[in-house]
Amino acid sequence: MTATATATATRRPPRRKPTREELKPGECLCDHCTGKCCRYFSLPIDTPTTWDDYDSIRWYLAHQHVLIYVEKGTWYLLVMTRCNYLRSDNRCGIYFNRPGICREYKTTNCEYDADWSFDKIFETPEQIWEYAEAVLPPRRRPRDRTPVEGLPIVTIGE
Ligand code: SF4
Ligand code: SF4
């Protein structure tokens, strides 16, 4: 392919996927999707109330491809990781034997056209810590256990 042909191909606008309303009778939304729901999983977590709770979330966020979001008062852990059964054509490789959670998931309220906006979202440990500092009372400093310089060290049994 020549450089001109490459440039022309690069300029071609991406194919627009149909909206839900534009779907023709008999067509499935998944036929036009990149398998968005098969590229992450998300679980509700306890609402953090203490410094230790926020510290645990800080640990979650220390890992790659993890984010925390809050929607309608519920906190969620989201891991952006592709299902091993998602094929390169964005179809399920074990469709007739897929887990129940996949069977129960319906296109009627899936994220086909979702913009992934949430009430709150945290992507880094620094963000969650800053939030904790804003909503929690100040932390108590741990007791300083450094020995005071100059005092004799007592050894039991001598
Ligand atoms: S259920 Fe929705 S998000 Fe999942 S593949 Fe089908 S259209 Fe895409
Ligand atoms: S098992 Fe199939 S439907 Fe379920 S997440 Fe994996 S690819 Fe998607």
Care to describe what's here?
This protein has four helices and four strands. The protein is of the alpha+beta class and 158 residues long. It has a domain at 27-135. A four-stranded antiparallel beta sheet has the order 1-3-2-4. The termini are far apart. Strand 2 and strand 3 form a beta hairpin.
List the helices and strands and how they pair.
Layout: H1 3-11, E1 41-45, H2 51-61, E2 66-71, E3 74-79, H3 100-104, E4 120-122, H4 125-135
Antiparallel strand pairs: 1-3, 2-3, 2-4
Helix pairs in contact: 2-4
The structure holds iron/sulfur cluster (2 copies).
One iron/sulfur cluster is lined by residues 29-30, 33, 35-37, 105, 107, 110-112.
End-to-end CA span: 88 Å
Counting DSSP E segments of at least 2 residues, the number of strands comes to 4
What proportion of the residues is helical, as a percent range?
10-25%
| Helix-strand pattern | HEHEEHEH
SS field, number of helical segments:
4
Strand order of the largest sheet: 1-3-2-4
Shape: elongated
Beta-sheet strand percentage?
5-15%
Q: Bound compounds, please?
A: iron/sulfur cluster
Mean pLDDT, as a whole number?
87
Rg result:
25 Å
Largest sheet: 4 strands, antiparallel
- Pick out the low-confidence regions: 1-8
Keywords:
four-stranded antiparallel β-sheet; disordered N terminus; binds iron/sulfur cluster; single chain; 158 residues; alpha+beta
Quick gist of this model?
The protein is built from 4 helices and 4 strands, in the order H-E-H-E-E-H-E-H. The chain is α+β, with helices and mostly antiparallel strands and 158 residues long.
